[in-house]
Design a protein that fits this description.
Elements lengths: L1 H23 L24 E3 L5 E2 L7 E3 L1
Antiparallel strand pairs: 1-2, 1-3
Amino acid sequence: MRKTIALAATLALTLSAASASFAAAPCRDAKGKFIKCPPAAAAPAKPTKCKDAKGKFAKCGTPGAKPVA
């Protein structure tokens, strides 16, 4: 019983250490030295919607269509 508990504790410790090293991996270079982390990706820009003179949605670029805020 003691061997099973010791094995489970060792396994849990090993997995937690491995997950911590994977979390820090993006901010290290190939040699393992710390580097400046790349900036986080910005949220994708929302597509612009346009309306025609009557107020109905239209394809942007068609004559008379204006972007809606």
